[in-house]
Amino acid sequence: MSKFKTAAFMAAWLVVIALAYYFFFWRYIQTFDHENLYSNQNATGFDSNRLVTFIEQTFDNETAVDTVTYHWLNPDCNCLRFGGLYIDQLMRQTNSENVKHVIVTPPNKAEQLLEMLPMFDKTKVVALSEAAYQASLELIPATPAAVVYYQKEHSLSFLGPHSSGVICGKGTGFVELVLNNLEHGFDPKLVELDQTGCFCRW
């Protein structure tokens, strides 16, 4: 093969790789609240009471624990392929007598999620009803997302991405930080809407 043909082949290969990278990953890079869900709804900012009410009305009460972390995961989102392992490790490392984890999916998506990421099969997975899912669209800006509910005080301790950084798990681990603060008696009530990363519409 001539040098020209080799160079042309390499250039074409790089274009294909770049297009694949964009299609599967880069086009999803945006801020967590990229549709301005909360700023469009409420000029005065985020209101945690609506999300707390939704959680208490939608999910079974985990009476034995102080804190429940809800992971909002949609298997149709390609971003989950990059962050699934990190989320699984996070759940394993922070699961305790006082902290439980629940994976939340859209209606009829639980089996698809477990086929895609079988490591979650030992964690409680809740597929929302259609009505609950429609209500959640006004509360959860993107996926993957985490909500830390401090059940002991009926308080929203965290809403946002699992970590900072473009890829889930690269950067500051927000969920670990919040759970550590709660363990030491401080509720940070942290809301991270402006973080940039790989997100899809919930």
What this model shows, in words?
The chain has one domain: Glutaredoxin, CATH 3.40.30. It is 39% helix and 18% strand. With 202 residues, the chain is α/β, with parallel strands linked by helices. The chain has a six-stranded mixed beta sheet, with helices on both faces. Strands 1-8 form a two-stranded antiparallel ribbon. The protein contains seven helices and eight strands; from the N terminus they run αβααβαβαβαββαββ.
Radius of gyration: 19 Å
Number of H/I helices: 7
The general outline is elongated
Question: Looking at CATH, which topology would you report?
Answer: Glutaredoxin
Pick out the low-confidence regions: none
In the CATH hierarchy, what is the architecture at level 2? 3-Layer(aba) Sandwich
The helicity comes to: 25-40%
The CATH superfamily appears as Glutaredoxin
Number of domains: 1
**Fraction of residues in β-strands:** 15-25%
Spatial sequence of strands, sheet with the most strands = 4-3-2-5-6-7
H-E string:
HEHHEHEHEHEEHEE
Give the biggest beta sheet: 6 strands, mixed
Structural class: alpha/beta
CATH C-level: Alpha Beta
> On the 0-100 scale, what is the average pLDDT?
85
The counted number of beta strands is 8
Distance between the termini: 49 Å
Provide a brief overview of the structure.
Helices cover 39% and strands 18% of the residues. It has 202 residues and is α/β, with parallel strands linked by helices.
